[in-house]
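Today's session is about reading a structure prediction critically. Students often jump straight to the picture, but the first step is always the sequence itself: look for stretches that repeat, for charged clusters, for runs of hydrophobic residues. Only then move on to the predicted structure, which in these notes is written as discrete structure tokens rather than atom positions. Here is the chain we will use throughout the hour.
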Amino acid sequence: MTRRRKAWIGAVVLALLVAVLGVGFAKRRNAGSVEVETEVLRKRDLVAIVSASGEIQPQRSVDVHANSNGRIVRLAVREGQAVTRGDFLLQIDPVTAQSASEAQSAVVRAAERDTEALRAELEQSRRELGRVRELADKDLISQEELQRSQTTVERVQAQLSAALARVDQARAGLRGSRYELSQVTVSAPMSGIVTRLNVEEGEFAFSTGLSPTLLLTIADLAVMEAEVKVDETDVVNVKVGQPADVTVDAFPDTTFHGSVSEVGTSPILVEGKTPEDARDFKVVVTLHEALPVAREGLSATADVETARTPGAVALPIQSLVVREVPRPKLREAPPDTLEGGEETEGVFVVRAGVARFVAVDVGITGDRFFQVRGGVAPGDTVVSGSYEALRDLDDGDRVRITTPPGDERDRRRREGRASQSGDDGEGADGRDSRDDAQGSATAGDDPEANPRA
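Below is the predicted structure for this chain, in token form.
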């Protein structure tokens, strides 16, 4: 064996020895450490969003009910037809109402004739009283005769007053019967579109009872609204005037802008449920833009912007955890005297390879980030995964940073480039409650859930 070959063999053996020693050193170094993923905190523009689903409704609509009983004898409109206020819509059989009106007219005429007769009788009675009074002054007749004449005048006056009251009563009845007659002709109460036609010519309409017949509905489709149901945990953050983006299932590629115009103060009652079970509230968003094709009842989703914080210190949702922090036993007790613990929200900050639990003050919630108002600062490195690591991690544990899987790494790079361009995409599906935000993070594109317990 040549000297040169011996040198090569020695070099290989030495390299293997160094490799083995390095692996052993690395294993000893990593013994007891936890593999974690981290993220460096920085400032972002955060938007808190409350999302709710519902349907599109016109801002103004009128349900036209039957005000008279009878068969529909004329129908002049069809569903989808445009009408103007005062236009003729339909007519209910007028025979019964017209007969009642004519009968009441006869009652009025009879009462008026009775009144005229009593007026004539009263005039005659007064003349007779005057003649009797002259004779009584000359002592040509007795006082009893004079008293009878005065009584006759008073009686006829009372009868005339009663007749006049009957005339007023008959005329009031005539006005009522004429009004009932006018109700057989149904006219448009407003300008708009006939969005619903519930009857056909020949059907019978009822105006009595608890539910008069709904004939048709007229709506003004120029201004539309999204009526959505908002959960009780979110509705407290929704205010009139807040901006909102509305998406309609029928127009998936278009977002309509609007603002909150109404927030319900009572829960929506659902048939079969008690008020205690109702936990959704009605919120109305008025659209600022016209729909390409306006239809009542289209399914819609509204994203209401309840808060916006530009340049906020952004903490990944999955980084927020809850840990039990010991507290002093008594104020006057030594600091190292501890009793129990208090659950505190915080994050694990990596410092010199060690995870340190730091309590934080959290503000609004965006799509993937919390606003942090205290406890950490931009540039701090916080643990952001994995779920298993965050669930079991304790203050003071040694950690080693691992690289996320390829897909996750690429996603984070894209998010970083989007953030650097001034748009971090916050608020697309955010929630204005921390628990909902964590649920969204769990079910969304981030595989790391939020281990806050």
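Discussion point for the tutorial: The two ends are 68 Å apart (CA to CA).
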